Amino acid sequence: MTKTLRVLIVDDEPDIRELLELTLLKMGLAPVCAANVAEAKAALDGGGFDLALTDMRLPDGDGLDVVNHIGERGLDLPIAVITAHGSADNAVRAMKAGAFDYLQKPVSLAQLRSLVKSALKVEVPSARPSARQRLLGESPAIQEVLRLAEKLSRSQAAVSIGGESGTGKEQAARLIHELGPRADKPFVAVNCGAIPESLMESEFFGYRKGAFTGADADRDGFFQLAQGGTLFLDEVAELPLAMQVKLLRAIQEKAVRKLGASQEEAADVRIICATHRDLAARVEAGQFRQDLYYRLNVLPLRMPPLRELRDDIPLFADRLLQRFGGASAPRLTADARRALQDHAYPGNFRELENILERAVALAASPSLSRDDLQLTPCVEYSPEPGSGEPLQDYLDRVEREAIVKALEGTRYNRTQAAKKLGVTFRSLRYRMERLGVK
Ligand SMILES: Nc1ncnc2c1ncn2[C@@H]1O[C@H](COP(=O)(O)OP(=O)(O)OP(=O)(O)O)[C@@H](O)[C@H]1O
C-alpha cells in the first residue's frame, strides 16, 4: 500500500484553510493546518510532511519565514507560496528563498492539482546526466552557471536565460531540464521568432479537426507535446503582444484550449525562456507585457559571452578539434592558440565551432597555424560622424549584409549559408524573416 502524503497548509483565514483542506482530502492527501508562522514551525519541526503550502501574509510574519525555516533546518520538503493577486514581487522573493512554485489567489482546483502533482514529482529521483556533457568550462563564470542550473532544476518556477547569441542558452535550458524531476518527460524547444503570427495560436495550443479550413485531423500544440516536461521558448522577446496575453493565461491557469475545442485541458509544463534582448527595456518600451515579464523572469540566468571565458578557450578548442577531426585531429601551434584566445567572438561559442570546423576541413598538415584559422577581424561600430544612425539600425544593416553575402556565396542554399555564418538553420531563417531578406 502506498503511504498517504501529508501536506501542511499555512493560512490565517479559516475559510481558505478549510477550502484547501477539503480539496487536498479529495485528492487523497492528508492535510494538516496551521494558522500562523509559529504553528507552522512547530508542525514542521514535528516532521513527516511531504509538501507545504503557505500563504504569504500571516499575522506573526510572512510565508518567507516558513520557507526560510525549511531551508535553515535542512528539511527535505517542497514548499509553495500562495500570494495575493498582483504581488509577483513576493512570489519572486519566495522562489529565490527556495520555494519551488507559487499560486495566485484565487486558487483554482486545477492549479492546486497540478502543483501537487509536480511537487510530488520533485521527490522522484531521476537519472542525472553529467553537466559536463552540455556545458564545458572551468572558468568561474561557467562554474557559476552550472551551480545555478543545478539549483534552478529543483524548482518548478519559470527560468529566463539571457545572453548573447551562441552563448549556450539552449544548452543551459536542456541542462536544467535534464537535472530536474521532469528529465524523463519531453523537452520541447520553440523559436518564437520563427512562427508566423497567424499560426501562433494553433502551434502553441493545437487544434481540433474542423477548427478551420485544412484542419483535417486533431493536432497537438507545443503545450500538449511538452506535457509533464519543459517548454523552452527561445527568442521570447519576439512574441507578438496578442500572443503574449494568451501565453500568460495558459501559464497562469496551467490550462490550454485547442482551437475549435469547447473544453480546456490541464497543461503541466515548466517554462524556460531565452532571449538575447533586454526584456526589461522591452517592457519599458511597451513591446513586452509587464505581467508576462514577471511570470517568466522569476529565476534569471545569464550566460557569459565567450570573451569572458578566455582561459577556457584552449580547452574548448581541444575538445572541438577532437570532435571534428577524431583521432587524427590536427593540433594548434602556440601562435594559433594565442590568436584564438585574443579573438573577439561576436558569435560566441558557435563562432568558435565554426572556425575550427572549417580549419579541420581545410587542414593540409597535422598542425594548424594562425593563418589556417582564417580569423576575420571584428567590424567596429563606427557610423558616419553625425549620421545619427541608431545602434540597432546599424547592427541590422551589418547583419543583413552578412546574410545576403553568405546567401549569394552559396547560391541561396540556406543550409550552407547558415553553416558559413556559424548559425543554425532555424536561426538563419528567423533572422531572414526579421530583417525582411527574401
Ligand atoms: N560552454 C559550452 N560548452 C560546450 N558547448 C557549448 C558551450 N556553450 C555553447 N556551446 C555550443 O555552442 C553552440 C550554440 O549554443 P546554443 O544554441 O545553446 O546557444 P544560444 O545562446 O541558444 O544561441 P542563439 O541565441 O543563437 O539561439 C551549440 O553547439 C552548443 O553546444
Automatic annotation (TrEMBL):
Residues 135-361 form the Sigma-54 factor interaction domain. SUPFAM superfamilies: CheY-like, Homeodomain-like, P-loop containing nucleoside triphosphate hydrolases. The modification 4-aspartylphosphate is found at D55. Residues 6-120 form the Response regulatory domain. The keyword Oxidoreductase does not apply. InterPro entries: AAA+_ATPase (IPR003593), AAA_lid_NorR (IPR058031), CheY-like_superfamily (IPR011006), Homeodomain-like_sf (IPR009057), HTH_Fis (IPR002197), P-loop_NTPase (IPR027417), Sig_transdc_resp-reg_receiver (IPR001789), Sigma_54_int (IPR002078). Signal peptide: none annotated. Pfam families: AAA_lid_14, HTH_8, Response_reg, Sigma54_activat. Transmembrane segments: none annotated. The keyword RNA-binding does not apply. Keywords: ATP-binding, Nucleotide-binding, Phosphoprotein, Transcription, Transcription regulation. CDD domains: AAA. This is Sigma-54 dependent transcriptional regulator. It comes from Chromobacterium phragmitis.
